[in-house]
Write a structure and sequence with these properties.
CATH topology of the largest domain: Rossmann fold
CATH architecture of the largest domain: 3-Layer(aba) Sandwich
CATH class of the largest domain: Alpha Beta
Low-confidence stretches: 235-244, 600-615
Number of domains: 3
Radius of gyration: 35 Å
Structural class: alpha/beta
Number of strands: 22
Distance between the termini: 85 Å
Largest sheet: 9 strands, mixed
Shape: elongated
CATH superfamily of the largest domain: NAD(P)-binding Rossmann-like Domain
């Protein structure tokens, strides 16, 4: 129908609606030939297979090329049929063929693209009528930002009214993407937000550096904005579903970390088919160890924890997610030697990950006997049984608080490190210690606390304006722990934690990400360092720093040999802890860990009353 109309219209235009008879008489035969040519070309380019909702530039090119091919086939047929292409014979004039091509291609495109254009118009009208939409800016005017905008324009199931882009590429300034202008540089973002009354920022930059995100949050800290970011799956896997793809900006996005890919290290091959025991499996670190082991097709996973509720819920979740895996749960207090021995005798694990521990610094300051019995005696029980029952690997999860400890918790973890290394000297089991800092989002950590305080309207409590901590994500920490275990790096491994982050900055960024102005909408108060806390943490002692090497973001260090009488001293330490003799416990900890110092002052001040930054 389009071809017939186009040929007729071309003749009408060529002869100003007065087609001579000698030309008009040939139109029926030419029409049959033209329709056959067009159908053949359209079939070759699969124009009968068309997506009216998702047609794009490539489909427009298909229409144009199919139109050219159809005109070419038509002209070849005219040549072989000896029909002259001249204005002075009965054959069609060349201008008619040219006009027919343009009219046909235009109408084909209009019909094919009109449903999508109509839907876009309806969406635009619906969005325009929706007064609850949030005026939005997209950070990043590249292919990802443009794709995000197009996906948003296809749907009205969101709350974003995109007013423009910001981008650091000066060549893009003043240009338009899908009808939206590039309004300025990222450095101009605060002024652009105020000028256009934006309330939401969508970050659409592939692999945006964490430092850049922190800079954006800092420059917008006095504005009430919501922040969203595109995950890697959208950017690199073409997961172009706009509404679920956008996620809230989270503290994890502030860390300059990349997820550890165990497939690249071939660790999965070493894990597959093994029997593995994890203590503290109901906790954040132990639970993530279990999850990654299951992802790598461990044969049987033995999950141990004293918290039966968390153990039950996590095991239920894993059984749903990994229905073909063998999961065995046991409620056990690792301080019970006989119970631990029975489990090892029954399960006979090949690999053991010991993550069970008391970790809260202030609570352990008030109960040093509990810290010793759980963190030292429990570690001894599990490590000794791993040796006795022939486990091939034992991995002890330690903490940066074990370096020059100022807390009972840190000192007990340091003793645990020495204990594990001491047992490993006389065992066929490969004993490893893995030491790292804080994990974002773990149970009891600062991030969930800040979230609760922000949701309650504040105040957000920070111990000290200068306190800094190492942070990494749970997924990365556990990925590196598994590398330590199955690549046999050495007996003492410290994870590369990057730079320490100031807790005050983290608090301010989280308030900004929640859409509030720090210290205006949500106050920040300083409570002072708690008992046992330090301003800064260290990952290695001086001796370890002089011996370490780096392998796959893991520091492998040599630590001084444990004292020869460590096992006798530890037995005495456990005995006094079980009797609740706290003073003797602290004295023995000091004997075992000479660098352990009880913090008498929460801070050191210079003469002018300012914090002493040399601490």
């Amino acid at each position: 129908m389009i071809a017939a109309f186009s040929l007729w219209m071309a003749y009408q235009l060529r002869f100003e609606a007065e087609v001579p008879l000698r030309f008009a008489s040939l139109i029926p035969q030419l029409l049959a030939l033209l329709v056959a040519s067009r159908l053949c070309a359209n079939f070759l380019f699969n124009l009968h297979r068309w997506s009216f909702k998702l047609s794009g530039l490539y489909d427009a090119i298909r229409i144009g090329v199919a139109g050219l091919l159809g005109s070419g086939i038509f002209m070849i047929c005219l040549y072989f049929l000896r029909i002259e292409l001249t204005s002075f014979a009965s054959g069609p004039p060349r201008s008619v063929l040219v006009m027919e091509f343009f009219i046909t291609t235009t109408l084909m495109g209009a019909i094919r693209f009109s449903p999508r254009l109509a839907k876009m118009y309806r969406v635009e009208q619906a969005l325009a009528r929706n007064s609850s939409l949030e005026r939005t800016l997209i950070v990043g005017a590249g292919a990802t930002g443009e794709q995000l905008l197009r996906d948003l324009l296809r749907s009205d199931a969101h709350y974003y009214k995109v007013v423009g882009f910001v981008d650091d590429d000066r060549r893009k300034q003043g240009t338009y993407l899908s009808g939206r202008p590039v309004l300025g540089l990222i450095a101009d973002l605060p002024a652009i937000v105020k000028r256009h009354k934006a309330g939401t920022i969508l970050i659409a930059i592939p692999r945006v550096p964490a430092k850049r995100i922190r800079e954006i949050l800092a420059m917008c800290s006095d504005l009430k904005l919501r922040f969203k970011i595109l995950p890697v799956s959208y950017i690199y896997l073409q997961d172009h579903s706009a509404r679920p793809a956008l996620t809230d900006l989270s503290p994890e996005d502030l860390l300059p970390r990349q997820e550890v890919n165990l497939k690249e290290t071939r660790i999965g091959e070493a894990i597959e088919g093994r029997r593995v025991m994890v203590t503290g499996a109901g906790g954040s670190i132990g639970g993530e160890i279990c999850r990654q082991l299951l992802e790598n097709r461990v044969k049987t996973l033995f999950m141990l924890d004293t918290n039966e509720n968390e153990l039950y819920l996590r095991a239920r979740s894993f059984q749903t997610e990994f229905p073909d895996s063998g999961i065995v749960t046991s409620v056990v207090d690792v301080r019970g030697f006989r119970r631990v021995e029975r489990l090892f005798s029954e399960f006979r694990p090949q690999d053991v990950f010991h993550a069970a521990a008391h970790k809260h610094v202030p609570l352990m300051e008030a109960a040093p006997d509990e810290a010793v019995t759980n963190n030292v005696m429990g570690t001894h029980n599990v490590a000794w049984m791993a040796h006795e029952y022939g486990a091939q690997r034992f991995v002890f999860i330690s903490t940066d608080k074990a370096v020059r400890p100022s807390s009972v918790m840190g000192a007990t973890k340091r003793v645990g490190e020495m204990l594990v290394r001491s047992i490993g000297k006389h065992s066929d089991t490969k004993f490893s210690v893995v030491r790292f800092g804080n994990v974002l989002g773990s149970a009891g950590s600062v991030v969930p606390l800040f979230r609760q305080q922000i949701a309650a309207g504040g105040p957000v409590t920070v111990t000290d304006p200068e306190v800094r901590r190492y942070f990494m994500t749970i997924g990365e920490a556990v990925g590196l722990v598994l590398q330590v275990a199955y690549r046999d790096f050495g007996e003492l491994c410290i994870l590369d934690m990057g730079e320490q982050i100031r807790i005050l900055d983290l608090a301010r960024h989280m308030i900004t990400m929640a859409g509030f102005v720090p210290e205006k909408d949500v106050p920040i108060t300083f409570t002072g360092l708690r008992p046992g806390e330090k301003l800064y943490e260290q990952l290695m002692t001086e001796e370890e720093e002089s011996t370490y090497r780096v392998d796959s973001k893991i520091f492998v260090a040599c630590s001084p040999e444990p004292p020869a009488d460590i096992e006798e001293v530890i037995k005495e330490l456990i005995a006094v802890a079980e009797r609740g003799e706290d003073e003797e416990v602290l004295a023995l900890l000091k004997n075992l860990v000479p660098s352990y110092s009880v913090m008498q002052e929460t801070r050191s001040m210079t003469e002018d009353g300012q914090p002493d930054s040399s601490l």
